[in-house]
Amino acid sequence: MSEEVGKIIQQADAQMQKSISHLETELIKIRAGKATPQMLDGILVEYYGNPTPISQVANINIVDARTISIQPWEKNMLAPIERAIMAANIGITPQNDGVIIKLFLPPLTEDRRKEFVKKVMAEGEFAKVSVRNIRRDKIEAFKKLQKEGLSEDVVKDAENRIQGMTDKKMTEIDHHCSMKEKELMTV
User: Fold this and answer.
1) Closest Cα partner for 8 from 139, 105, 122, 102?
2) Which long-range contacts (CB under 8 A, 24 or more apart) does 24-27 make?
3) Nearest CA to 28 among 172, 175, 176?
4) pLDDT of 140 strictly over 80
5) What are φ and ψ of residue 107, in 5° steps?
6) Which of 17, 31, 14 is nearest to 127 (CA)?
7) What are phi and psi of 86, to 5 degrees?
């Protein structure tokens, strides 16, 4: 039985870590006035009938702090890439010169920075809810094991371990969000 408890705790840790990794990925996509290729992660282009990430159909380069250039490997991919960027609604209008697509990031205004901070906090809250749901599910699994004959002390100890893990992940989420907020608010 305690083998099962250990397995549940390991699953909880792995699932909570996935929530943190997802948060980190989402925070990278929120731009802080600096151009990064990760801003285009998750944007899919229609490539011969298949949705394909932009990075698999073009070279993505950072020209300067606020300019991204996208050079498709095939010239006929210019229009689909441009459409995909527009459809992704990342707040940047692509400039197509017939050879490459350039994305010029506008300087961030104070209001825009505050909007991005709200978005960061929303992503952080989403990650926290995910971690709390994992905790709830694992505690329910422990209670089910208790009904099957696991001792109450073992269950309480396992619940405390899950709660400690949850608290650590919450602190980690808060740290990620505050670092991103600091990055966004720095002019």
Assistant:
1) 139
2) 24/176, 26/123, 27/120, 27/123, 27/176, 27/177, 27/180
3) 176
4) yes
5) -65, 145
6) 17
7) -65, -45
Model confidence pTM above 0.90: no
Contact between 150 and 1 (Cβ < 8 Å): yes
Summarised one tens digit per residue, pLDDT across range 11-58 is 999 999 999 999 988 887 776 667 778 788 888 898 888 888 988 899
With the CA atoms of 38, 41, 46 and 48 taken in that order, what torsion angle do they form, in degrees rounded to the nearest 10? 80
Same domain as 150, residue 174: yes
- Assess whether 147 and 161 both reside in one domain: yes
Residue 93 sits in the same domain as residue 118: no
Final residue belonging to a domain, choices 57, 88, 104: 104
**HSE (side-chain half, CA atoms, 13 Å) at 182:** 6
Alpha-carbon separation of residue 73 from 70, 78, 87, 104, 183 (angstroms):
10, 9, 21, 21, 34
CB atoms within 10 A of CB 42: 13
Q: How many domains does the chain have?
A: 2
Check pLDDT > 60 for residue 1.
Answer: no
Range(s) of the domain holding residue 69? 37-104
* Range picked from 39-48, 77-86, 131-140, 145-154 for highest mean pLDDT: 131-140
CATH code of residue 41:
3.30.1360.40
Residue with tokens 């422990």: 142
